[in-house]
């Protein structure tokens, strides 16, 4: 019997909140953080809305020498790693040095940092490129910096699977725990809200070009026309059940119970998309039946063709409108690799509180056989929740999280 | 332990695109001849840069079988990955069309993704750096795929017809080892029956030169490009940038045996640890790499004495070569002094995320041919690097088990143990 992997700490860096409870309160209240881009002048671009994090002052969290060495997404991730360990009640320095790993997903690395150095290179010359460029922009930076900040010498890694990567990172963290590392901090934090990042994202053809924040990101709606990008994500402290019990972990949000990933064939190949296989694989890995799943946190691309594929996969696995489906990312925008870890955090909070957060702004299309939770949160006794995440090129990942019954921790 | 079947990942197909020759045969000939493929950079005028040498691969996209549309939409690193994956698939003799697609996975390592594409496109949309608000109307339609290098994994998946798990592993200069470790886990845990895995990078671009110049990581030996990469030599003064890819077909040992496949090696052990020290710096004691080596050997159920050859990271920076020499001694004890150690970066440069996989290719070819490739340009041994680095000339000897290591920015230290399942008794 392999050891169960529990989540014992959470940290959130979301446009709707920089603490777990602030984010959760906003999510249940249906409060959106989507608004006009303020980070740069987006007026000349066809897309002009984003979910920006406000109120994060990196200098309040990090030593000043780190500020010129780090992209915004790394600053958010470093602060988030502090919050995650604090939330878990863990002082990493108290564990043996090889007992904690860090496994993050990345989407585009420190893209804004890279932008500034590319500009220095092409406008002034190579000698003006920062000595920090070699490690500030690349995809591995958040894992490396978190490892250094907390002295984590266990197995570490970084995966890039576009917007599915957040789940792949957590699954890789679970692998390491199963192989004997007691604790791994995992998840992802992304930010590429800069002109260069914006232009690159525009070429995906999937950004909403609407200016009304209430009508811009409408997954599973007949009026769906792309998504709004956001920044942020979540970090999770994963721990073997045995280790969590032994140290008397104060919080257990639940278990990473099942996971699977698939890749769609190239468009035009005539073969079927494979999301359904990923969902079924995750359920099988968790050892649960479709009826055991109390809610689905959807990928919610808001691109009609992609919405159709996801709706059909969910309806085929669970039956038509047979499981509540939600997309709280309608409040934050899509956070790229950070989106799925944030959905995992929301799924664990949903398990804790027995409530499914809503999808905002949408009128569910009648084309899809989905029971979408809209308008207000819905109370539900939850045991298992499914989180779906998809990336460009047809990457599909699905993860099942499950509540953990445990006796109250001993009094100390 | 349960009495269930233990799945053992083995390599049954290999492809290499490296400087000095495209394809496995030319690659192995270059290494065993001890020739170098380092030269003055030809892709652009390198004269504004401190380091002006690199090892460039001569990839002809059309000759390599890429269609015009594939060539247009893929960054050079993706082209390497796809061409090389096709070579590995052909070499495996496995009928991919007959495999269940959802049981075939793809894992691609890359440190810097589509750096060349991003550098060129930034130059255009910023009009040579003039526009802070870069102009989206000049962006190529594939820019998003350059931004997010998981496009490398999906391109390979499409090329080989894989519909199982696909991802890019991006852990700096250990990516090429870590990707194979990741793929081996997919086989072992049963998430896939076959994985096309390896790594690619194409970093020879102005922004890469500038960023390594800024920290003096690359060699300034511009007057002698052919002898610029000098791992373990007392005169070494930085690494030489390279590019390329190596891809493999991994499958379960029993399945490979049942179909009568050529088995190059078992991925018998893998581990990675972090030094939690510095994003680019190394402590000289090599503790974390030594720990990775110990754990990888344990996983392989091999003792230090079972290792016949160490394929070193050997980047040719002052700190790296000392660091890993210490790690070998710390983990292998006296056996470190008796085991041949070599760095093929002396011949084909350091292709960042790709090199770990290219070094695995060299390692399994050493097992296949019972030949240890040399460390070129090693004329003046550094007294602090006092192991047997196989200077200048390849060496014939029996090779049943190989240790290959990598060390990367971000503090990642990885070790992989490759063993012949027929001969080493693993």
UniProtKB/TrEMBL annotation, chain A:
InterPro entries: Beta-ketoacyl_synthase, Ketoacyl_synth_C, Ketoacyl_synth_N, PKS_Beta-ketoAc_synthase_dom, Thiolase-like. GO terms for molecular function: 3-oxoacyl-[acyl-carrier-protein] synthase activity. The keyword Nucleus does not apply. Gene3D superfamilies: 3.40.47.10. Keywords: Acyltransferase, Transferase. The keyword Transferase applies. Residues 2-403 form the Ketosynthase family 3 (KS3) domain. Transmembrane segments: none annotated. GO terms for biological process: fatty acid biosynthetic process. It holds the Pfam family ketoacyl-synt. Belongs to the thiolase-like superfamily. Beta-ketoacyl-ACP synthases family. This is Act minimal PKS chain-length factor (CLF/KS beta). It comes from Thermomonospora echinospora.
UniProtKB/TrEMBL annotation, chain B:
GO terms for molecular function: 3-oxoacyl-[acyl-carrier-protein] synthase activity. GO terms for cellular component: cytosol. Coiled coil: none annotated. GO terms for biological process: fatty acid elongation. The keyword Acetylation does not apply. Keywords: Acyltransferase, Transferase. Signal peptide: none annotated. CDD domains: KAS_I_II. Residues 6-420 form the Ketosynthase family 3 (KS3) domain. InterPro entries: Beta-ketoacyl_synthase, Ketoacyl_synth_AS, Ketoacyl_synth_C, Ketoacyl_synth_N, PKS_Beta-ketoAc_synthase_dom, Thiolase-like. PANTHER family: 3-OXOACYL-[ACYL-CARRIER-PROTEIN] SYNTHASE, MITOCHONDRIAL, POLYKETIDE SYNTHASE-RELATED. Belongs to the thiolase-like superfamily. Beta-ketoacyl-ACP synthases family. NCBIfam families: PRK07314.1. This is Act minimal PKS ketosynthase (KS/KS alpha).
